[in-house]
Write a structure and sequence with these properties.
Elements lengths: L2 H12 L3 E5 L4 E4 L1 H5 L11 H4 E5 L6 H7 L3 E6 L6 E9 L2 E7 L4 H8 L11 H37 L10 H11 L6 E9 L1 H8 L1 H17 L6 E4 L4 E7 L4 H15 L3 E3 L2 E3 L2 E8 L8 H17 L5 E4 L6 E4 L16
Parallel strand pairs: 12-13
Antiparallel strand pairs: 1-2, 1-6, 3-4, 4-5, 5-6, 7-9, 7-12, 8-9, 10-11, 13-14
């Protein structure tokens, strides 16, 4: 190995961003890291001032003027994109000059733009220390990001559990209260339907609580199937359910929905080969018919209408009468006077 080869290896190791330029300004050798910045265009053979624009010292157009200026500090910028700015020192030697370049404060941007690592810098360079700090910061931020995502997922899960009935998957009483609270002053009409299961206690007493849980899950499925995505279906008690219908106050439509629910729920549900027979009583209160009622008050009116339906014989729905506060029960098959909100006498 010749002395020149040894010197070249030494420069590549200790100054991986060096350039050896002859006295005519032509690059004869470039360090491995510097060449990595322009991998498709070998630097040896190019003129230094064709590759770089001098910003310090200024007003220097020829390489021999640069050497004659006696200036040792350089600021240069690549003439082609990306226009990375570099700082450097030039050391004139007989027949050539060695220029050692660095990124300065733009090191982090350069590492990102050129995918550099600590192996691209001299072992004693402060750049390696900074890169270690950046890598450590990235690792910490990565861990922090994962922790933050886990905490966010846990928070969402906890909120969902707090607002979800675990047995049926429906909203719970707390969630329904939040939905009704948002209705106050919202300006969008809505209706509240209160549903109570008839004969549910007999199912629990005769077939056990497993059968009762099965019935509640089937009821939840039917309620979801008979309502829209924008409606809120909640289990608010052992065998009590509430549906909040968004922007739906039309009595005929509400009555049809309620009657479908009654028809479906009175069909026996099979549990381990044995029928579970229940029915449903329903109370309904549209907001437009109770303009002075709060959401909680409307729920109370639907609850009172539900008890009237119970007293009328079960498997029945009842509307809260407009304004007056009295209710009229609607037995199955009865013709309803929709304008008066009740069933005809007799």
């Amino acid at each position: 190995m010749t002395c020149n080869d040894t010197l070249a290896r030494l420069l590549a190791r200790l100054c991986p961003m060096h350039i050896v330029v002859d006295d005519t300004g032509v690059i004869r050798r470039a360090g491995p890291t510097l060449q990595k910045l322009r991998p498709d265009h070998p630097m040896p053979g190019q003129r230094f001032l064709d590759l770089f624009e001098l910003t310090r010292p200024r007003r220097t157009c020829r390489f021999d003027d640069l050497l004659a200026s006696g200036e040792s500090k350089l600021n240069v910028t690549f003439r082609t994109a990306p226009h990375t700015a570099l700082k450097g020192h030039i050391v004139p030697l007989p027949g050539c000059a060695v220029i050692d370049l660095s990124f300065g404060i733009s090191l982090i941007d350069a590492v990102r733009d050129y995918a550099l690592s600590s192996a691209d810098f001299a072992p004693t360079s402060l750049a390696t220390e900074l890169l270690y700090l950046v890598e450590a910061k990235s690792a910490v931020m990565g861990e922090y990001g994962q922790l933050s995502r886990r905490l966010q997922a846990a928070r969402v899960s906890a909120e969902e559990q707090a607002f979800t009935d675990t047995l049926t998957g429906l909203k719970n009483r707390r969630a329904m209260d939040h939905v009704l609270a948002r209705k106050a002053g919202g300006g969008i009409p809505y209706s509240v339907m209160h549903i109570d299961l008839d004969f549910f206690k007999q199912v629990n007493d005769t077939l056990g609580h497993a059968a009762g849980d099965h019935v509640l899950q089937q009821v939840a499925r039917i309620l979801v199937e008979e309502t829209r995505h924008e409606d809120t279906v909640a289990r608010v008690g052992g065998d009590e359910f509430v549906i909040v219908f968004d922007d739906l106050t039309d009595r005929p439509r509400l009555r049809r929905i309620g009657q479908r629910l009654i028809d479906r729920l009175q069909q026996p549900m099979q549990f381990r080969g044995r029928p579970c027979a229940i029915s449903a009583s329903i109370g309904i209160a549209p907001s437009v018919e109770q303009p002075l009622s709060t959401p909680a008050g409307l729920l109370r009116l639907a609850d009172l209408a539900l008890y009237d339906a119970k007293h009328a014989g079960r498997s029945t729905l009842c509307f809260a009468a407009p304004r007056s506060g009295t209710r009229t029960a609607c037995p199955p098959g009865a013709e309803v006077d929709e304008t008066q909100g009740g069933c005809p006498p007799g």
